[in-house]
Amino acid sequence: MNDIRSIERNINELRTLQTVARAYTEIAAVRMRKTRNSVLLNREFVMALDDVFADVRASYAQEVIKLALKRRGEGGITFLAHNGKTVAVLLSANTGLYGDIIEKTFRMFLKEVRANPEGIEVALVGRLGLALFQSAMPGHPYTFFEVPDTNITPTNLGQLIGHIVQYEEIRVYYPTFQSAIKQLPSKYTISAETPLSELQEKGGRKTKYLFEPGLKDILAFFEREIFASLMDQTVREAQLAKYAARIMTLDRSGENIKTSLKELNLDKLRVTHRLKNKKLLESISSVNLW
């Protein structure tokens, strides 16, 4: 009887887990669809904003180059203050059930940080990434940012963007959505510099603009907005990949639960038959004794 009770208890626990897994899968699917629509809309916005910025730069290429030469002498153009350093940013997660995509992304991030530990500063987003980094490189300095896994707002990203915007080069490591069944770790580099050669190549554009209060102020505004938009888009791309990874993980868990339930039901059937056979034999034995 104890075997039967134990098996039935395990069956009930697995059925509860199965219900929870189904609920989480449905929630993740809804969030993935919602995030996917948001990512596509934001992608179009960022591309349009970048096109306008390219038109502005190309329309007044020579004026921009003169301003750049006054500021830096040669090489590139930027109108925001930067510290000349490089930062590596890891976008991870706060909770589990994302499969192995977070660890794969972390390994890509860790490889580059270890290759140049003195020349790259570290910024971490998500408690899972924090735990992995503290385990892999204990004592190494880092800056940690608490950003929720869901319902991300501009306020949530404000501190992160405010911190990394000061760097000359930002390398962001994050999971990307390839398809519903495939997610890959990726690296995206945001550089403060716009090569002057690029401006000269696009200098033939015909669009004319009037700048108020001035070209320098307009370009600084565009640079800030594009940087913030790129970071926001990257975070949402990572969010989309994590939702897809969670769906796959929960789907595999659901299949494993089904397999375990079948095995437990067979065990229950075997034990039930064994008990019935035992009772039958006992009954026959008692009849023979009489």
Automatic annotation (TrEMBL):
Keywords: ATP synthesis, CF(1), Hydrogen ion transport, Ion transport, Membrane, Transport. Produces ATP from ADP in the presence of a proton gradient across the membrane. The gamma chain is believed to be important in regulating ATPase activity and the flow of protons through the CF(0) complex. It is found in: Membrane. It comes from Candidatus Woesebacteria bacterium RIFCSPHIGHO2_01_FULL_44_21. InterPro entries: ATP_synth_F1_ATPase_gsu, ATP_synth_F1_gsu. Belongs to the ATPase gamma chain family. GO terms for cellular component: proton-transporting ATP synthase complex. Its main location: membrane. It is a peripheral membrane protein. GO terms for molecular function: proton-transporting ATP synthase activity, rotational mechanism. Pfam families: ATP-synt (PF00231). The keyword Membrane applies. This is ATP synthase gamma chain.
